[in-house]
Amino acid sequence: MEYTFDKLKQIKQSLEKDKTLSASEIKKKYLNKDGVLSEAFKEIASVEKDNKAEFGTQINSLKKEILDILEEKKQEMVNYSTTERIDPTAPFDVNCSKDFLHVLDNKGTKHPIEQEIEKLTDIFKAMGFAVMESKQLDDDYHMFESLNFPKGHPARDMYDTFWTTDNYVLPAHTSTMQNRALKEFSIPIAVVLPGRCFRNEATDAGHEHTFHQIEGVYVDEGISLGNMEAVIKSFLETYLETKLEVRVQPSYFPFTEPDCEFIISCPFCHKEGCSICGHSGWIEIMGCGMIHPNVLREAGIDSTKYSGFAWGFGVDRLTMIKRGITDIRYIRNADLNFLTQF
Ligand code: DAH
User: Fold this and answer.
1) What are 198-234's pLDDT values in tens digits?
2) CB-hemisphere CA count at 13 Å for 38?
3) Residue 197 C-alpha to ligand 1 middle, in angstroms?
4) Are residues 175 and 58 in the same domain?
5) Does the residue 338 lie in any domain?
């Protein structure tokens, strides 16, 4: 008889050690048909009459202990799956301030550049422009040829393009979309083309290998540089929320004639001179010009009847000016200190 009570004692001791096993392992070892506890239950028959009650109490409390452990494990699983679920792939710096822990509870927000593109395209939509997104992998024809850069033309070197081994190109500007926009829409054409651009160049506070631009294309009968100036000025005044003085000065692009740079009075110091305008009072904001007749013809548009203007500006650069961001590299660093401010 002593032997049987000793056996219960041993089961209790081994249970203490087995608490860390999984629920199914515990069930298998103790409660299955041939499990340790089930075997002990079978011994009841051989226990002396006087000890039966005590044996019954002890073995039942052992069974309860096992069931309690299993219940606890089940509860742990429920809690884990409802409150402690985390995304191990989330960009989260474990050493960051507790202030940012709430980010884990959030579903996330749109990237500041995405937010800005929406604001910018909304302004153009209100001015009657359609929106068409640019491609992120393109070809020589759209990057150069359709834009009046013949093969071997030195102006191709102005763009530090990335090429794939099978001769595709990562667009170095959103002008890659001009030919498509001119073919896709019917005259009068008014379309903006936001997109991601890539340039194989060294990065610094003002340059990134990856950035966004918004291209604009407007074509109709009798369109002049005056229309271009009015449209771009009105857009910039709406976005920067201030009246601006503007200048259009000569530049060079193969796909425009004349080729221009659009300059605005500094929206911060109003020409007094400050760090944002480099103390000049003026900021060069985008390339633009009247669309070259060769570009119109390439897209099947009669350049003797129709004319138009186009522009391309950097979203990152404009956002930096508006928000006072001093280094373009902050924008793609995925640093929560920066991102949570937007
Ligand atoms: N694609 C030019 C660049 O990134 C900017 C530009 C200039 C776009 C003149 C235009 C334009 O549409 O007409 O340098």
Assistant:
1) 999 888 888 899 999 999 999 999 999 999 999 999 9
2) 10
3) 12
4) no
5) no
